[in-house]
Sequence to fold (301 residues):
Amino acid sequence: MMVQFRSLLAFLPLMLSSTAFLLPRQATTTQVYKFPSTASIEGIGIRENGQILITRMDAGEIWQYDPTTKAAAKLISISGVTATAGIVELAPDVWYIVGGKYSGGANTAGSWGVYKLNLNGASPALSTVKVVPESKLWNGLTKLDNDTLLIGDAQAGSVFKMSASTGKYSAIITANSEMTPGGGIPFGLDGIRYYNGSLYFTNISKNTFSRVPIDASGKAGTVVKIYSNTPGDDLSFDSLGNAYVATNLQNSVIKVDAAGKITKLATVSGSTCTAFGRTEATKNTLYVGGGSSVMSFPVTF
Ligand SMILES: *[C@@H]1O[C@H](CO)[C@@H](O)[C@H](O)[C@H]1NC(C)=O
Ligand SMILES: *[C@@H]1O[C@H](CO)[C@@H](O)[C@H](O)[C@H]1NC(C)=O
Ligand SMILES: CC(=O)N[C@H]1CO[C@H](CO)[C@@H](O)[C@@H]1O
Fold:
């Protein structure tokens, strides 16, 4: 078999060049790490050293995958929290994570908040930034500036801003119809990413991807629809402004260019989030969380 495989490989460049127009443009995915099947990966954050932080809707824990040992281990548990979601880095190895009480589809309104995980010391240092009584079902998290987080409430269809240093917060968008759930699942506003002056967001139960301008003070403008025919979960951007959206229910990762054109890049079951590698060797690798697995595939842009 190995010989046959090798001989096939030898012909591959020829096959590719002669049938380029017939081949699907989908990338082959690699399984980076697989948790037990009960795990539900929600967010991934790539550290500058290449280690991968993983949040889980099924546990109030943050895990870390080490590409050198190819092993994952629990970094920390958050007391009183049963689900972790959005994750973002504000300063080198200072991470912020959304957490709350959610299990088996049952959500506890008012339990959601933001936690800080500082990885600069000898051991991980966890602290509470703020638990917010007005939270319904927080999920997405992104950086507005070095001290300001934007947080999406998937059930309320609202966006909060919060100071990472003081925990002071306020709603900057409240119950926007573009962000509220459409029925079925209680998640509307899902992935959020602040990029180029706008908050880009998916509305997973309404199959939409949109953006809303947000100024430096956190004031929101008018929502602009980008597409309205594909489910979307969390996303990331490349340096050219293409969005890489995990489609969750559609089991794929799509690329959405600045004009809104969608290209399916890869098949990933239950995809929830994407993040680019940060080392020289992985800067064109897109990591994807989906179900209980972290997958990866190469991306050219
Ligand atoms: C934000 O933090 C980065 C380091 O993470 C620093 O290089 C940059 O100068 C900071 N920007 C502002 C406006 O303070
Ligand atoms: C960034 O925003 C500017 C101003 O709105 C716009 O002209 C430009 O096309 C945007 N760039 C990308 C990559 O989306
Ligand atoms: C942007 C977006 O997804 N919009 C949909 C989200 O939810 C509202 C209803 O609350 C729909 O009307 C939008 O089309």
In short: The helical segments are 2-18. Residues 196-197, 241, 258 surround 2-acetamido-2-deoxy-beta-D-glucopyranose (ligand 2) (CB under 6 Å). Residues 1-20 have pLDDT under 50 and may be disordered. The longest strand covers residues 83-91.
